[in-house]
Amino acid sequence: MSEHSHHHGPAAFSRAFAIGIALNIGFVAVEAFYGWRVGSLALLADAGHNLSDVAGLVLAWGAALAAGRLPDHRHTYGWQRASILAAFANAVLLLVAMGSLLWEAAHRLQSPAPTDGITIMTVAAIGVLVNGATAALFMAGSKSDMNIRGAFLHMTADALVSLGVVAAGALYLWTGWAWLDPVTSMAIALVIIAGTWGLFRQSLHLLFDGVPESVVLAEVDDLLRVLPGVDDVHDLHVWAMSTTGIALTAHLVMPGGHPGDAFLEHIAETLHDRFHITHPTIQIELNGLDHGCAQPLTGLPT
């Protein structure tokens, strides 16, 4: 027997994605033009990063739309995992872009050239406004959806980085230090890599059906074992179907017989409230059937 509790997907963010993509495409064009015109690697680097963010927003938007597709006979869970794939692709895209930026900045540092501090400050200030406004569009969904959180973190980081470029431009005007531009570029890259690494690690973990961070498997096992009438728990699995949906399957050995639908409903509500598990499937066994996992889970009772 099984009990399913469905809580599919966050609120739609299509309008936020459309506005964010449009704003950032316009800003990339402005930033790249003036970066090329004044020879600022910091502006060109940030333009390249913002272009990768546009691609990231497109990926995240496409994944959000795909995750909303209804299940069918070929995809019984729908396309929910698309949001995890998009989060992973976003992280990889950013890490590669920032690696290239570090390489170029290191070369530029060997022979720094003067730049136009006023232009850098003006363009970067526009970036603070554009990226800050885009981040605000995704703030509401950033706590419940890793895909949306990826977009929010990217835009927030961009706003902070642009603020740093403004400060660097002001310092250049005051000191005349030409090395500030490549050093600022390197600082931008390191900040973004640090902020992206967690998204990369978490999305890769979920792609390999890792247990989501909101779930402590030993606690789930303990919860199921102390239920009235349960003698044993086996074949316990927890994984992410998407960046918002978590699934669980478990076999409960209950020699006293099936406890009824109210018992299963109680389990579903408890798992959702404590661990945010949205799709539990429970199988009741009278004597315990040995047709599941060949090996018990490490660290759990056997």
What report would you give on this structure?
Helices cover 61% and strands 8% of the residues. The chain is mainly alpha-helical. The protein has two domains: 14-207, Cation efflux protein transmembrane domain (Alpha-lytic protease prodomain-like, Up-down Bundle); 217-285, Cation efflux protein, cytoplasmic domain (Alpha-Beta Plaits). Strands 1-2-3 form a three-stranded mixed sheet, covered by helices on one side. Helix 2 packs antiparallel against helix 3. The two termini are 22 Å apart.
Please provide a brief summary of the model.
This protein has 302 residues and is mainly alpha-helical. The chain has helices spanning 14-38, 41-67, 82-110, 117-138, 146-175, 180-207, 217-225, 261-275, and strands spanning 232-240, 246-253, 279-285.
Keywords:
302 residues, mainly alpha, Alpha-lytic protease prodomain-like, Alpha-Beta Plaits, three-stranded mixed sheet, elongated, disordered N terminus
Termini distance? 22 Å
Number of strands: 3
CATH secondary-structure class of the largest domain: Mainly Alpha
The third-level CATH topology of the largest domain is Alpha-lytic protease prodomain-like
Overall geometry comes to: elongated
> Counting H and I runs of at least 4 residues, what is the number of helices?
8
- Largest β sheet strand count, sense and barrel closure: 3 strands, mixed
Instruction: Report the portion of residues in β strands.
Output: 5-15%
Average predicted local confidence, pLDDT: 80
Question: Low-confidence runs (pLDDT<50, min 5 residues)?
Answer: 1-11
The CATH architecture category of the largest domain equals Up-down Bundle
